[in-house]
Amino acid sequence: MKIEIEYEASWRNSFLDGNDNEPLPKKGRKFIGSITALKKSENYITRDVTLSTTMGILNRLIGEQRKLYQARQDENYYFKEIESKVSFQDDIKVKNSELVYLRNMSGNTDQNSFTGMINTNDSMFTSDYSQEFWCVLALEVDELLKFIVSGTKHDKNIELDPLAIVDRFTEIGKYKVLNEDEKVQKVLDVLENHFEGTNYKNNKGLVVPLNLYCSALYLQLDRLSSVYDLSSALTKIGTITGISKRLFTKKDFMNRFTTGEKKKIFGNPYISKSFVEGEGQVTSMLTKASGTLEIIIDIEREKAKELKKMIENAGVSSFYLGKKGLAYVTKIDTREVKR
How far apart are the C-alpha atoms of 118 and 121, rounded to whole Å? Predict the structure, then answer.
């Protein structure tokens, strides 16, 4: 028995982790098509037509609505004795790449955006400790290293405004990484003593200045706690809003000082950039394919006629193949197939 299916614009990428042959996790499968997720090359997943794809199509053609793994678990699964007799040939006639924008329905937020009016009168900027606390960010790198080791008091001024703090963190984020010389090692020893287990290096083993500035703010909190009431500077769990021991997150930081909610991400380009040895940087986008899928089922003619009748009764002549790819059944032949 032979079934021919013509399809057009079949998506050949997966935007979710896991696979269709397993039960759904309670929280659903994780969306891995975001800009952040695609920075990891393993999250750019390509898909081809497989036996499971083919069996999913056959089940769909006879009106089976359950997921394939659910149907396969049924003792009365129609294709239970037939699957081993199914083969297929995916004849791709056109294959191209397209830049598409995907909308993440899980409600992720933009890490670098915020909404609403900005409150510049928050207690973090108007308290008696404010200038002395935030002035840590006004230090240059050499001054910061000395401050961390010796606790030297500084009288540098910094504009006490949320946007000014954001701008300063942006500047710090552009600072060059530091080699681990004797001076830097002393700094790391002090920070490790206060914040055990915090990593201040990138994947090349070089020290990132931004990480040091973030921890220096927490170090300053400890040093000022004997002089000032710093409760207004901290969240209920004892952290600084939007600032961890090594990272600054703009959206979380500004969330405290704005009247609006965090800005949701409604779409992002599906594009992956990875380094391939011998080729350099390779850019990958959504792949779409058009062609014909030929399904061969090695069964007796009477069984083939029965299957054909079930397909006709179900009335499914078109369906989606590979997300948005529309497919049509163009031929069902129950005669003996020549090979």
Answer: 9
Q: In sequence order, which ranges of 96-172 are alpha helices (DSSP H)?
A: 123-126, 130-134, 141-150, 162-172
Token pair 């006639």: residue: 93
> How big is the chain by its Cα radius of gyration, in Å?
30
Report the Cα–Cα distance between both ends of the chain, in Å, rounded. Answer: 12
Q: Tens digits of per-residue pLDDT, 312-325?
A: 998 887 777 766 67
What single letter denotes the amino acid at residue 49?
Answer: V
The Cα–Cα gap between 331 and 27 comes to 40
Longest dimension (CA), the chain: 92
Structure tokens at 286: 């959504």
- Supply the pTM of this predicted model: 0.61
**Residues facing 286 on adjacent strands:** 98
Q: How far apart are CA 105 and CA 207, in angstroms?
A: 37
DSSP string for 153-185: --------SHHHHHHHHHHHTTSPPB---HHHH
Residue 25: Cβ within 10 Å count:
10
Give the separation between CA 339 and CA 61, rounded to whole angstroms.
24
Q: Tens digits of per-residue pLDDT, 204-254?
A: 889 999 999 999 999 999 999 989 999 999 888 889 999 999 999 888 888
Q: On the CB side of 240, how many CA atoms lie within 13 Å of its CA?
A: 24
Q: Which residues pair with 109 in a beta bridge?
A: 264
Residue 34 in contact with residue 104, Cβ under 8 Å? Answer: yes
